[in-house]
């Protein structure tokens, strides 16, 4: 019995699959924990068996799966031990390309007991395993409350019960909230960890942007083959959105009672986002027609994707369901911001990155949900935590992924007019943040935080500058009244971005100036009356515009500007921006502790690939702008040529030296300088004397919105980011540590 938990290591001869006495010892009913299994079965031993006694490893996996599938709920210990053993061994099967197909093969002789004819329709092991997990997740007295007096012992009963009556938590499509049960939560968690491990084969394949990226484990589990797909999707979603970590409002309550729900919620969130890893760019998503039916899932839409989890998510449509989901996610995202006068008195959750991915998926796959979010100022309950995370993580190299997803969500929201309108709500919540104190709206908060990220974040955030300013441009036509603090921040950015060394030091830096000028144009054209602060700031800083209009284009001047940069490689000058005192109770954004682990990310597509330009018509509807209609638009209005067309042209005009180093040329500078469209100063002075813009401004230009568009590049980015988060967050037990993952690299800060 002492050897029970060691692998069938290096038995010189293969052990027959029929030798039950030998194999049964591996899942004997001795109580162990998953941590024990990880300690007793070291990595080196699994790899040795894989290399030296492959048939024993094959038989072990086969026996565990079969014992498991037949064991049913009746032998809980056996089920849990099999589950732990598989969680331990699977990553080592995935890391070896020769073994990867093993679970998808049918094992010869699997039907031995009943003769050979059963082999014809034998399922692959992977399918048997996934169906067994699904059954066990709705197993009375093991993972759910039993509804009848007698216990279910026969496997047949488990297969016939209607799991929709056993959904884990009230919420979408289910009104009954079962009694919390610690044992059930722990058992569910162990099974979900195994499920996540099955799905993690994706970690062992290198990132390939062209791969449709269908994970066969997820594909099968979320197909009609899994009769529990709907109740399980609902259980996971409701468990996450119903969770309230505050501890019933009693300070320090979380220290007195261990919260066994949180690990389950975290695991549920991780399984949910992995099942929803679906490239929406390549699939048809259901249309939005605003109809409602009596069920939780909308049946009127055309059939959606084959992945049922994505399908169900895209068809949720009832207002009360949207309200439940939005309130739940907002509550959990705001949790780390809860400040009380007693330090550490409230429980802080750690899974905000998984929640942000889930929120992204909801908005991306369910347009009705997106419109619901923007219909009221509830969207601000999502915005403020995101701005808090962005500001807090700006100096930390290990949290670059968090910065990106926060910005992507805001980019997605900013493509909708309502988001800009909602930002005008006064900002009164005082979450302690390391930013200057200001009095104003949520728009002011957004601009002040963006300014802080750009001027005091680390270098690796520079690819996000385009995105940040695109968001500002998207919301600018709707901003009724910027505070003096925010107006000064915008002009400080213009000042920093329009220095000659910055403009000439990279091929696309001038886009940032164009974005800012476009935002100023929008505000002056559409919201002039309330924006005296911005107009005043522009007039005060008119020398910046003057310098831009007189930008040197001759080669010696370009050369001189770049020399100046070599002497002072300060990323962006902080001079000229009067930093007021930071908010009371805030801590400065800290860099990562040395040695912090982080996972690498694939590059994100440029802003021209991330977004698609649309023009807002008189009635508020959007029409997509094809390059043909863009030409006419840029004549006679301050709207500028878009970075994407200009980009190819500039690549042609600027010279790339032999070393591949890009260098600016006079033609290149002239090609975009001519499009700046700056008016001369006399007109501004005339306006100041008369106090009116009538006759000065051209006819208002159409509003241009750059809407986020799904593409395979972002789908790949999300996949690497999501699995990187899951890899780093699962440390007890360390499911994937020290295995040969290929999707990302593990780095130390």
Automatic annotation (TrEMBL):
One of its GO terms (cellular component) is Golgi medial cisterna. This is HID1 domain containing. It comes from the Eukaryota. Residues 626-635 have a biased composition (Polar residues). It holds the Pfam family Hid1. The gene is HID1. Residues 281-297 have a biased composition (Low complexity). Residues 281-300, 556-661 are annotated as: Disordered.
């Amino acid at each position: 019995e002492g050897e029970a938990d060691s692998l069938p290591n290096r038995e010189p001869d293969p052990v027959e699959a029929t030798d039950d006495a030998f194999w049964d010892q591996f899942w004997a009913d001795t109580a162990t924990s998953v941590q024990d299994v990880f300690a007793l079965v070291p990595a080196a031993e699994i790899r040795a068996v894989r290399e030296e006694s492959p048939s024993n490893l094959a038989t072990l996996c086969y026996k565990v799966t079969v014992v498991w599938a037949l064991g049913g709920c009746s032998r809980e210990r056996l089920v849990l031990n099999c589950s732990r053993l598989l969680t331990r061994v699977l990553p080592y099967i995935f890391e070896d390309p020769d073994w990867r197909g093993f679970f998808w093969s049918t094992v010869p002789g699997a039907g031995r007991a009943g003769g050979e004819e059963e082999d014809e329709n034998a399922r692959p092991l992977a399918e048997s395993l996934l169906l067994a997990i699904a059954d066990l997740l709705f197993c009375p007295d093991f993972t759910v409350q039993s509804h009848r007096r007698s216990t279910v012992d026969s496997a047949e009963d488990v297969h016939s019960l209607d799991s929709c009556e056993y959904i884990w938590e009230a919420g979408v499509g289910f009104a009954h909230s079962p009694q919390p049960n610690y044992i059930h939560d722990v058992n569910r968690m162990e099974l979900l960890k195994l499920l996540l491990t099955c799905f993690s084969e994706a970690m062992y394949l290198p990132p390939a942007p062209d791969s449709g990226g269908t994970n066969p484990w997820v594909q099968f589990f979320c197909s009609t083959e899994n009769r529990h797909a709907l109740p399980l999707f609902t259980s996971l979603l409701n468990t996450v959105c119903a969770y309230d970590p505050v501890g019933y409002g009693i300070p320090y309550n979380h220290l007195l009672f261990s919260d066994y729900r949180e690990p389950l919620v975290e695991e549920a969130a991780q399984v949910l986002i992995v099942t929803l890893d679906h490239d929406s760019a390549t699939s048809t998503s259901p249309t939005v027609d605003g109809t409602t039916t009596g069920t939780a899932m909308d049946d009127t839409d055309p059939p959606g994707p084959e992945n049922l989890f994505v399908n169900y998510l895209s068809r949720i449509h009832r207002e009360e369901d949207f309200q439940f989901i939005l309130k739940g996610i907002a509550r959990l995202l705001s949790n780390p911001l809860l400040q009380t006068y007693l330090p550490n008195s409230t429980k802080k959750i750690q899974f905000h990155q998984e929640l942000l991915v889930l929120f992204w998926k909801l908005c991306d796959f369910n347009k009705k949900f997106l419109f619901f979010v923007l219909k009221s100022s509830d969207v601000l309950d999502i915005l403020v935590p995101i701005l808090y995370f962005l500001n807090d993580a700006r100096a930390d190299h290990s949290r670059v992924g968090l910065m990106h997803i926060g910005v992507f969500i805001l980019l997605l929201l900013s493509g909708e007019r309502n988001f800009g309108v909602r930002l005008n709500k006064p900002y009164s919540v005082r979450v302690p943040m390391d930013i200057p104190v200001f009095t104003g709206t949520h728009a002011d908060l957004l601009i002040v935080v963006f300014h802080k990220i750009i001027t005091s974040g680390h270098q690796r955030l520079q690819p996000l500058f385009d995105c940040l300013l695109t968001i500002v441009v998207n919301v600018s036509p709707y901003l009724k009244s910027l505070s003096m603090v925010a107006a000064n921040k915008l002009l400080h950015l213009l000042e920093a971005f329009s220095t000659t060394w910055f403009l000439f030091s990279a091929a696309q830096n001038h886009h940032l100036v164009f974005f800012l000028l476009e935002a100023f144009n929008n505000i002056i054209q559409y919201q002039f009356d309330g924006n005296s602060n911005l107009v005043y700031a522009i007039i005060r800083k008119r020398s910046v515009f003057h310098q831009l209009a007189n930008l040197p284009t001759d080669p010696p001047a370009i050369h001189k500007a770049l020399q100046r940069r070599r002497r002072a490689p300060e990323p962006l000058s902080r001079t000229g921006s009067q930093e007021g005192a930071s908010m009371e109770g805030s801590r400065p954004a800290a860099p990562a502790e040395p040695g912090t682990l982080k996972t690498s990310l694939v590059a994100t597509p440029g802003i021209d690939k991330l977004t698609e330009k649309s023009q807002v018509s008189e009635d508020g509807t959007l029409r997509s702008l094809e390059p043909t209609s863009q030409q006419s638009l840029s004549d006679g209005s301050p709207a500028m040529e878009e970075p994407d067309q200009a980009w190819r042209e500039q690549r042609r005009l600027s010279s790339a030296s032999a070393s591949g180093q890009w260098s600016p040329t006079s033609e290149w500078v002239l090609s975009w300088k001519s499009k700046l469209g700056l008016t001369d100063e006399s007109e501004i002075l005339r306006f100041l004397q008369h106090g009116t813009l009538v006759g000065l401004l051209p006819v208002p230009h159409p509003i241009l919105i750059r809407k986020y568009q799904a593409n395979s590049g972002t789908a790949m980015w999300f996949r690497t980011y999501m699995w990187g988060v899951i890899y780093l967050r699962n440390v007890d037990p360390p499911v994937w540590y020290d295995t040969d993952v290929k999707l990302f690299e593990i780095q130390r800060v």
